[in-house]
Amino acid sequence: MANESRPCPCDIGDRFDYGGRGQEVQVGHIKAYVCKPSASTDKAVIVIHDIFGWQLPNTRYIADMLTTNGYIAICPDFFVGQEAWKPSNDWASFNDWVKTRDAGKTDKEVDVVLKYLKDQCGVKKIGVIGFCWGGAAVQHLMLKNPHLKTGVSLYGVISRFEDKHSLLHPTFFIFGEKDDIIPLEQVTLLEQKLKQNCKVDYEVKIYPGQTHGFVHRKREDINPQDKPYIEEGRKDMINWLNKYL
User: Among this protein's residues, is 102 annotated catalytic?
Assistant: First the structure.
């Protein structure tokens, strides 16, 4: 069950019992999970995992959800073979661990994935979503990568890029009201900075009563009052992608 008494980055929530409908492939120097819809499409979404890595069933569940909505979904190993965080690890070592996995240094891997999607899958329009660590990576990519059409940052750690707000592409930011990792004052400041500096479409949305990781780390049946917000977050994510892809 959820470990809500000791909230830590992405430690709140459940590991889904889910196998995945896609397959693992080698994409350049990295491995990736890929799932494709039954009908052909020229639209794809890159899914950036949280600290628990590209093999987390929860992340593959969301990737498959994107596929049922008509997108090719690909979740690469952005840790490039380095070990993902484990719930049993000592949280006192977390800051040292995460320093070796910089969400602002995902460009090389994204370029390889973009080439694969265009050359091997015939994709023309590409978006990106990410959770926590991956949400911070989305913000980074929306600031600099010209080849991505849009992004959805789900509870991305704002402090990683708090001084940069000139987004190149429409970006949707999802936050939980009760997120112990991302205080609401940080979210308010993000909104203010975007309003001052951002020239493209964006939205910042806070979901009442929700903790960190709620869209992909909470089971729908864990708490009746959470279910509508979990479903709303997923629906909002899909609607944003549909609008800009």
Answer: no
